[in-house]
């Protein structure tokens, strides 16, 4: 496989490092590299990173997926629609800037998926990518059904809780969870919503928006009450069955003017005409709506645009007094956001080359009792940002990356962007269009998207049927480096391959043991010897039989043939005396074998991908 790329403009890099499937293949000083270790019929993903003489690295390019033709069917060089191993991949520029892409061409709205009969692997894929893995009942219900019907169910079914699953408990054993009682119960309440969700997509989208419109409890500026209200606010733009007309535009309006957590975390409450604070205006362009550069590497906005948008967002004040003057009585207006005309920047404001007209200070004739020119400036500023040519592709790329392993094809991006704008920034058609794309079934035989830690954790709990209790999951979330309500910074979690390192891989395996403790010991149940507690002991079970029982007990997830062979070999290591014996030691050995098989299925390499 020969790769070629365009050298970056300006100073020539000292060398390039070529990466295949996340691992370095080696370095070269030339703008090309030949990989001689590929195998026929396999698909690989390549990326390139440039280094200067001081060994400083540029950004890793977006990856390019290339399939090596089978040796029995090598295509003629240059044949359209084939992957020619002698041909270069599309131009890849190994610089910190985003590589250029072709000029968008209008294409029709994406057509529904042609898959009228879904396999078990397809059903599993959709429930993992759009949720936290399927229950066996969901798998049984959807195998053999149409892809389009499952997508429609996901985007149209309102959020609800499966009350047949065990409710969570506080550390004291109470099943009534108060998310405002403290951070542990705040997190426990959301984990429970994710675990027992009938339709998992709303909670999965809330998790996405939490990584997008970021707030965090870790700097002390956001209270538990504001964080809880923020989560519920995001749910209104994630529960597309209950709110089918939800738009990104309205979400942006409300994040700017009606969310206490966002106001405090990004200093909107401190943004006044005399002391402007640029934090939120900067992030709404850099992180929430546009990104810093377009695909050609041009700046999407300037410092002057940040100044103008900051001025449009002045005057919004947050009531941060939790108690009244007596320091005892709760303040009914705690967390309320109001507009203060005295703190608003009245002159004209320029944002992205467009002018938001100066205000006169007069109320609108149709609303004589309300000062509505402050909100009007916010809406005008948000609209200008969303009408920027890069907004649609920026948001769609981020959403695509939540559900898909590979880069979005340009034609698909163009079609989804056109539909998104034509629908007034509605979210339901956009999510539907992404989930209907057949790319979601790419590489079914070898899942290739890393599960984010929270998705992984909730999936393990669902697979085991493990109820949750107290603070037992806070440690695993910290160790896996994704604790809900606690992103590390305003950019959120990096994601992708960054989820896996020598610490987090061990933490993921350890989390499985915590889930097993909740399922099979007194971690949840009052009596460690309760009938619902220990896994059953099956005397005389063969290695193949215990592997099948362990596999079924964790929801029959994808595992490779090589993994299955290794698990079977492990199961065969139990001595004959322990396999058939009746002593307490033999019973314990058999249970340990069963638990170990569960842990290796869920916590091993195969369990980390979806």
Automatic annotation (TrEMBL):
UniProt superkingdom: Bacteria
Pfam families: DUF1800
Residues in coiled coil: none
Biased composition (Polar residues): 69-84
Region feature Disordered, mapped onto this chain: 58-85
Record-linked InterPro entries: DUF1800 (IPR014917), FN3_sf (IPR036116), Ig-like_fold (IPR013783)
Protein name: DUF1800 family protein
């Amino acid at each position: 496989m020969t790769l070629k790329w365009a050298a970056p403009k300006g100073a020539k890099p000292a060398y390039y490092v070529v990466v295949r499937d996340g691992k370095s293949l080696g370095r070269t000083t030339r703008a090309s590299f030949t990989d001689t270790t590929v195998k026929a019929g396999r698909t690989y993903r390549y990326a390139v990173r440039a280094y200067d003489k001081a060994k400083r690295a540029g950004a890793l390019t977006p990856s390019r997926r290339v399939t090596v033709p089978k040796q029995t069917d090598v295509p003629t060089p240059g044949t359209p629609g084939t992957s020619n191993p002698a041909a270069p991949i599309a131009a890849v520029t190994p610089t910190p800037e985003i590589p250029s892409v072709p000029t968008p061409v209008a294409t029709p709205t994406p057509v529904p998926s042609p898959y009228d009969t879904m396999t078990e692997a397809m059903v599993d894929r959709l429930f993992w990518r759009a949720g936290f893995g399927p229950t066996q009942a969901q798998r049984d219900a959807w195998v053999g059904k149409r892809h389009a019907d499952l997508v429609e169910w996901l985007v149209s079914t309102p959020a609800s809780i499966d009350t047949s699953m065990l409710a969570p408990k506080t550390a004291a054993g109470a099943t009534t969870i108060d998310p405002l009682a403290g951070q542990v119960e705040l997190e426990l309440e959301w984990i429970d919503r994710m675990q027992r969700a009938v339709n998992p997509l709303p909670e999965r989208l809330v998790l996405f928006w939490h990584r997008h419109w970021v707030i965090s409890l870790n700097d002390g500026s956001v209270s538990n009450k504001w964080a809880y209200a923020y989560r519920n606010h995001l749910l209104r733009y994630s529960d597309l069955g209950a709110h089918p007309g939800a738009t990104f535009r309205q979400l942006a309006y409300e994040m700017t003017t009606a969310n206490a957590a966002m106001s405090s975390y990004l200093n909107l409450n401190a943004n006044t005409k005399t002391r402007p604070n640029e934090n939120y205006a900067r992030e709404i362009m850099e992180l929430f709506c546009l990104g810093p550069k377009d695909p050609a590497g041009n700046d999407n906005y300037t410092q002057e645009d940040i100044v103008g948008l900051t001025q449009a967002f002045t005057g919004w004040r947050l009531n941060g007094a939790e108690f009244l003057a007596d320091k005892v009585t709760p303040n009914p207006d705690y967390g309320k956001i109001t507009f203060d005309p005295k703190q608003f920047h009245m002159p004209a404001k320029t944002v992205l080359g467009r002018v938001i007209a100066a205000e006169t200070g007069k109320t609108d004739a149709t609303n004589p009792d309300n000062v509505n020119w402050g909100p009007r400036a916010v809406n005008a500023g948000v609209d200008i940002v969303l009408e920027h040519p890069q907004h649609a592709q920026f948001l769609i790329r981020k959403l695509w990356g939540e559900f898909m392993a590979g880069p979005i094809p340009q034609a698909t991006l163009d079609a989804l962007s056109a539909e998104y704008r034509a629908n007034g920034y509605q979210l339901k058609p956009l999510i539907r269009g992404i989930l209907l794309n057949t790319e979601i079934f790419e590489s079914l035989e070898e899942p290739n998207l890393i599960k984010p830690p929270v998705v992984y954790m909730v999936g393990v709990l669902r697979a085991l049927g493990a109820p949750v209790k107290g603070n037992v999951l806070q440690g695993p979330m910290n160790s896996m480096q994704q604790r809900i309500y606690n992103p590390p910074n305003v950019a959120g979690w990096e994601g992708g391959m960054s989820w896996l390192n020598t610490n987090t891989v061990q933490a993921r395996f350890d989390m499985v043991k915590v889930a097993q403790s909740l399922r099979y010991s007194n971690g949840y149940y009052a009596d460690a010897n309760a009938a619902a507690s220990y896994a059953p002991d099956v005397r005389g079970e063969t290695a193949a039989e215990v592997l099948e029982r362990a596999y079924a007990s964790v929801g029959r997830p994808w595992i490779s043939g090589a993994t299955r062979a290794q698990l079977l070999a492990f199961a065969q290591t139990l001595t004959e005396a322990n396999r058939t014996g009746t002593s307490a030691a033999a019973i314990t050995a058999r249970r340990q074998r069963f638990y170990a098989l569960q842990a290796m299925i869920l916590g091993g390499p195969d369990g980390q991908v979806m």
